[in-house]
Amino acid sequence: MTIPIDVETKHRIVVVLLWLAALVALAVLAFIIAVVLWNGLPAVTLSFLLESPRDMGRAGGIFPMVVSTVAVTLLAVIVAAPLGVGTAIYLTEYTSETALTRVIRFGAECLAGVPSIIFGLFGFIFFVIQLGMGWSVLSGGLTLAVMILPTVMRTAEEAIRAVPESFREASFSTGASRWQTVTQVVLPSALPGIVTGVILGVGRGVGETAAVIFTAGSSLHIPTSVFSPARTMAVHFYILAREGISMRHAYGTAAVLVILILAINTAANWLMLRFQAKQG
Amino acid sequence: MTVARREKAIERALLVSALSAVSMLALIAAFILIEGAPVMLRHGISSFLAGTRWAPTKGSFGILPMIVASVVVTLGAMVIAVPLGLSCAVFLAEIAPRRAANFLRPAIQLLAGIPSVVYGFVGILFLVPLIRENLGGPGLSVLAAVVILGVMVLPTLIGIAEDAIEAVPRTYKEGALALGCTHAQAIRRVILPAARGGIIAAVILAMGRAVGETMAVIMVIGNAAIIPCSVLDPARTLTSNIALEMGYAAGDHQKALFATGVVLFAFIMVLNSIATMRIVRGRR
User: Are strands A53-54 and A59-60 parallel, antiparallel or unpaired?
Assistant: First the structure.
């Protein structure tokens, strides 16, 4: 009679430990967000967002960094989204499993695992030096595009695969060509999933430092064209914090970054849930 | 006729975009290698990899301290991340009520979304003083990097491990429960062994993340280019070596940073290949 009780107790201990592990992970997340927002939010005012930095960032605001972040990330998405979605369409609609698709998938998996500092090195030597783009929004955006390509591609592929086969059959039976089926039937139903992937890519781009600092540069001015150097918010925050320029402004920038990431992730999640609900 | 030709052209365009990821990977490998390999060969591969003196302005390019630091920090991070991450994965897949899981899953993904510079910042402000005051040493240390990385790789580890656990057929668990196992026993004796391949892949991919993490590590590890003797010593990883000096390096010094990138890239490719093969084999 003692053995079953013992096993039961063991089971309870395991369950308690597992709950504890989950709570630890949550607590770490809550701690980081709370610390950043608590110390950072007081610094975030409208003028902080809309003014240029003065005295290397000790005073003034972060307006040029907001513009730079938007410009670099937008460029990355404009380049990565068509490529990623094109890849996903090719893999799902135009080919079956072959050696080639295995190579394509393996390449994407590996690209997803490449550390951001390697993207930084590559972007520096390829876009900045070889292609002569210099430290610019263009170099930074293209480097980020390569970096977020696997994210966009993988999510788009999953979303397209989730479109029921009967949709395609119905479309083909009306005499539609493959491409017509893709653009009129498959893509519209997969759109929320695809957008989710793009939003996740935006999130990665916004928070990235190592890949951007050596490609977009760290100019404090508002970029006027894609060839201007730029300093994104994450890079600005890194420089403020590491060189100890201003704790107050570092915290403020971090708070803006974290709020942005929270919003981006919430949007992606909401879309994903809605998409899954629709797929039923 | 024109429709057929247009369809063919579209298919070709899609194939080209499909090859973008692979070609980018090849391009990255090629450029890092072209920039990094010559300086490595000129100074001798063994003196580059096994040299302990990094004095790039004086022509000494030994990166053994960085290799040791990267390996130690990565393995250390696993000591924290594997038990915690696996427990979370099991919790999500087996224990958590639906609503708790639906809350926890996006929260963990959010952990992945927080920029690495923010982790480094929080590390400097809270973890580094904590270590300095309670354990001694400068605080900026291997231990600080281990803790930060242990947290940062959690989302990777949890996501893939949870997928692996959920891929175990329900019948396995039902069989175990029918034989009189408790749920905990079924998890330990049946579900986890069945999901082993995917779990190992999760750990290896998490190691890849840890090896490659840069900004957070730079901020908390102290960056001294010497082989650390204890976890409380400062050290410098391969990634932080590159990021610290890229800003001002020129000539052979810059090439040596690319050579550091070659070593890092090799590490990552080996880890990723093992993990990808495991995941693919697991799917069959």
Answer: antiparallel
Comparing CA positions, the residue from B58, B62, B84 lying closest to residue B146 is B84
Q: Tell me whether residues B3 and A94 touch, CB distance under 8 A.
A: no
Type of residue found at B143: L
Interface ipTM: 0.92
pLDDT(B250) > 90: no
Q: Does the structure show a pLDDT above 60 at A2?
A: no
Q: What is the pTM of this model?
A: 0.92
Closest Cβ opposite residue B215 in set A15, A26, A209? A209
Which structural domain range is residue A38 located in? 2-43
Q: Would you give the distance in Å from CA B211 to the centre of its chain? A: 5
- B144 in Cβ contact with B221 (< 8 Å): yes
Same domain, A57 and A191: yes
Measured distance CA(B248)–CA(A218) in Å, rounded: 13
Task: Tell me what the mean pLDDT of segment B71-82 comes to.
Answer: 96
Handedness of CA B75, B150, A155, B167 (dihedral sign): positive
Residue A124 contacts B, CB cutoff 8 Å = yes
Interface check B277 vs A, CB under 8 A: no
Mean predicted lDDT score pLDDT of chain B:
91
A11 and B214 within 8 Å at the Cβ level: the answer is no
A6 touches chain B (CB under 8 A): no
Number of domains in chain B: 1
Question: How distant is the Cα of B229 from the closest Cα of chain A, in angstroms?
Answer: 26
